[in-house]
UniProtKB/TrEMBL annotation:
It comes from the Bacteria. It comes from Ideonella aquatica. Keywords: ATP-binding, Kinase, Nucleotide-binding, Phosphoprotein, Transferase, Two-component regulatory system. Residues 147-364 form the Histidine kinase domain. NCBIfam families: PRK11073.1. Pfam families: HATPase_c (PF02518), HisKA (PF00512). This is histidine kinase.
Length: 364
């Protein structure tokens, strides 16, 4: 195997693995001159790799002196790593404000002529931490609920069977009404248990899914339930490609969110002032968890209702949490689970007069 001589400058191919990272990366000289930038940094700054490698990274740092001091300290072998927070200027259209980032400057080799600069969006880091925390909490909660549901399921069958046998032995038909109540309530609890266990079914991913067909199915179902007083508006991006998924799970996820919106809009539906918007968009260079995706689908489900109560906003995806009298609190839990099984995320932004549930799913 050929050994690259010490001090030899590696080709761009040597650093192509950095394109697989979800964070911005640049390989620079101690004076800040770029030798390589990965595709994420290209996208964030808004210039091509060829352009960026002909210039200095210092041009794009809001505090260039701080970055230069870190680069020179590492080149002089005073440190092996330096971290600090600053911001990146961007050339992308519409980006007027610098992007707050966390800089990590590291040595690559013993020559110290090439240094690695990794830049992590502070907002992205916060979002990743939140997603990991939510995913962990959801997993623990689902396991608890699943175990509890299994413990409930077996006694329920015994209660229902005993009530049926008792009904056959009762001398008076009037007394049979009580056994029918027991059977009915046992069936209702059985249905609740089945819904608690439903998220553990694996997605049936055998075909391509058109997100607009999913939205249209949900729209037709909801308008059939509310023929008057409710508008369900479309705002679709026709360029969104199909993707592999479980069509029925996605219909159920979107339907659960829209049903929740309809319940929040009940008074406005009666007044003829209820509106739900189904909006689809393509998002580029999206990070979900710690994985970077070139393209992702964004589905926004927006309503003009009173908003999610502040006391529930951090808990609305937890099982059995409901803001409605008599609600099971399972609709959003199921929606979150089905979206997560498609490698996606779901989040809610709510204020009085505007609530938006955003579903993000990676595209091929």
């Amino acid at each position: 195997m050929a050994v690259r001589p010490a001090g030899a400058v590696p080709s761009e191919r040597h650093w192509e693995a950095f394109d697989q990272l979800a964070t911005m990366v640049a390989v620079v000289r101690p004076d800040g001159q770029c030798l390589f930038v990965n595709s994420v940094l290209e996208s964030v700054i808004g210039l091509s790799r060829r352009t960026l490698t002909s210039r200095s990274l210092l041009e794009w740092c809001r505090e260039p002196a701080q970055l230069l001091e870190a680069l020179q300290a590492l080149a002089a072998n005073q440190f092996s790593t330096r971290r600090f927070e600053s911001a990146l200027r961007r050339a992308v259209v519409g980006a007027t404000e610098p992007l707050p980032v966390h800089f990590i400057v590291s040595q690559i080799d013993h020559s110290h002529e090439r240094l690695l600069v990794e830049m992590i969006e502070i907002e992205q880091q916060t979002r990743q931490d939140r997603e990991e925390r939510v995913a962990g909490q959801s997993q623990v909660t689902r396991e608890l609920i699943r175990n509890l549901a299994h413990e409930i399921k077996n006694p329920l069958g015994g209660i229902r069977g005993a009530a049926q046998l008792l009904a056959l032995e009762l001398p008076s038909p009037e007394l049979g009404e009580y056994t029918q109540v027991i059977i009915h309530e046992a069936d209702r609890l059985q249905a609740l248990v089945d819904r608690l266990l439903a998220p553990h079914r694996k997605p049936h991913i055998v075909s391509d899914v058109n997100i607009h067909e999913v939205c249209e199915r949900v729209r037709s179902l909801v308008l059939a339930e509310h023929p008057r007083g409710l508008q369900v508006l479309r705002d679709y991006d026709a360029s969104i490609p199909e993707f592999r998924g479980d069509r029925e799970q996605l219909i159920q996820a979107v339907l659960n969110i829209v049903h929740n919106a309809c319940q929040a809009l009940a008074e406005q539906i009666d007044n003829g002032d209820a509106r739900i918007v189904l909006r689809t968009r393509v998002s580029r260079q999206v990070t979900i968890g710690k994985q970077r995706f070139r393209l992702a689908l964004e589905l926004h489900i927006q309503d003009n209702g009173p908003g999610v109560p502040e006391s529930l906003r951090d808990r609305i995806f937890y099982p059995l949490v409901s803001g409605r009298e008599g609600g099971s609190g399972l609709g959003l839990t199921l929606a979150q689970t089905f979206v997560q099984q498609h490698q996606g995320t779901i989040e809610c932004d709510s204020e009085p007069g505007r609530t938006v549930f955003k579903i993000v799913i990676p595209l091929p």
